Amino acid sequence: MDSSLVQVNPLLLPLNKEKTVYDGFITVEEQDFRMRILLPPDRQLKQAKLHCSWQLKHLLHGYEHIVKQRLQQSTDLVSFILELKTVLEVGLKSRPECSSIPPPRYYSQLISEMETLGWDTLLFIDTEFRTLRLKAEDSSGRQHILTIKLKSKHPAEAPECSADLPVPLAITWTPQSTLEQLHKQFVLVLESLTEFWDVLDELDSQTWILEPEKPTWSDTMRRITIGNNVSIKVEVNPRHPKMLPECCLLGAEHVVTPLRNKLNANMHLWNPNFSVLHNLRDVLEIKFPSPATHEKSGFSADCGICYSYHLEAAIPDQVCNDPRCGQPFHQACLYEWLRALPSSRQSFNIVFGECPYCSKPITVKMLAKKS
């Protein structure tokens, strides 16, 4: 019987001379599932006990009565194993999610790679040993996280990788690649973006940022306070962070127009050898309020309609152009207010009406429809 069992399932072997304890793996559809069979002294299958790994238990869920029946009816261990394989094949077909359970070599490969990389790099690993989060640091000491989702055929199949970056994460992978090599590639990507994050760090520390309030590593935009209800939105290029960024001035026209004229007239003075903040000061001919000189609350006026600063993710960025008023509003609030006025009118995507505070003419763009 033992020679037949080796032919049918070579990974399930007896552990004692009496051959009442068998341990190992049952192979189905090129997948190995851990199991142990305990036979009574007379080696009768009717009294046998079957111990399964959690993967095998999950696969056999709903088929327990069939397995028990096969134990009662099978004349020898070989025939039982053959019938059990048939049950497992049916289980795999009815549960496609089980077909991705990795073989034992997957886990040994993963442990070996982590030992080479260093366990101190590992921040998280899920219970299925599929999703890993590895930490990495750029040359300025910023902490970053690389999320890796391994496939069941690792390393033959490339993993899915993601990170909080302003550019797509391009990773090269071959069947011979390792997690250590993957981590090194990620560190090189971080180094290529270090100057970009240095530029934004200076803006974050030396100016008052209105948006985003809690920037992530992937954010390329900063809305910087210039004065009361006046700001500039800059979009920094991650690949060329010290080049002239896209700029958009926001605020009342009587304040924004002179600044826009200076920006256009002095654009040629932009020097990539200097920082973005230094260049913005020179080109706009202004000094930005900073945490060292001003309180942020002085530049965070509430909406004149809903009397709050935040409306979901939006802040008041629509301003009355009358110099004596200058009241800010959320775009959504102002749009709904003007739309309700009998005297308001619409032309293309612009709504024209009167300021809720001073009754002077005011306009707002229609809200984009959410898809």
Q: What is the element layout, followed by pairings?
A:
Elements: H1 2-8, E1 12-14, E2 21-28, E3 31-38, E4 49-52, H2 54-60, H3 64-73, H4 77-94, H5 104-117, E5 122-125, E6 131-137, E7 143-149, E8 160-163, H6 179-192, H7 194-206, E9 209-211, E10 221-227, E11 230-235, E12 246-250, H8 253-266, H9 276-284, E13 318-319, E14 328-329, H10 331-340, E15 345-347, E16 350-354, E17 361-365
Helix pairs in contact: 1-4, 3-4
Structural features, described:
By secondary structure, this protein is α+β, with helices and mostly antiparallel strands. It has ten helices and 17 strands. It folds into four domains: 99 residues; 89 residues, Ubiquitin Conjugating Enzyme, CATH 3.10.110; 103 residues, Ubiquitin Conjugating Enzyme (Roll), CATH 3.10.110; 61 residues, Herpes Virus-1 (2-Layer Sandwich), CATH 3.30.40.10. Strands 1-2-3-4 form a four-stranded antiparallel sheet. The longest helix has 18 residues. The two termini are 66 Å apart. 23% of the residues are buried.
Helical fraction equals: 25-40%
Largest sheet: 4 strands, antiparallel
- C-alpha Rg, in Å? 33 Å
SS summary, helix count? 10
Enumerate the strands of the largest sheet in spatial order, edge to edge or round the barrel.
1-2-3-4
Low-confidence runs of at least 5 consecutive residues: none
C-alpha end-to-end distance: 66 Å
Overall CATH class of the largest domain: Alpha Beta
User: How many structurally independent domains?
Assistant: 4
Known CATH architecture of the largest domain: Roll
Portion in strands = 15-25%
Order of helices and strands: HEEEEHHHHEEEEHHEEEEHHEEHEEE
- What would CATH call the homologous superfamily of the largest domain? RWD domain-like
- What is the overall silhouette? elongated
Structural class: alpha+beta
Q: What is the number of E strands?
A: 17
Q: Indicate the CATH topology of the largest domain.
A: Ubiquitin Conjugating Enzyme
- Average pLDDT rating: 87
Protein name: E3 ubiquitin-protein ligase FANCL
Catalytic activity: S-ubiquitinyl-[E2 ubiquitin-conjugating enzyme]-L-cysteine + [acceptor protein]-L-lysine = [E2 ubiquitin-conjugating enzyme]-L-cysteine + N(6)-ubiquitinyl-[acceptor protein]-L-lysine
Keywords: Cytoplasm, DNA damage, DNA repair, Metal-binding, Nucleus, Transferase, Ubl conjugation, Ubl conjugation pathway, Zinc, Zinc-finger
InterPro entries: Fancl, FANCL_C, FANCL_d2, FANCL_d3, FANCL_d3_sf, FancL_WD-rpt_cont_dom, UBQ-conjugating_enzyme/RWD, Znf_RING
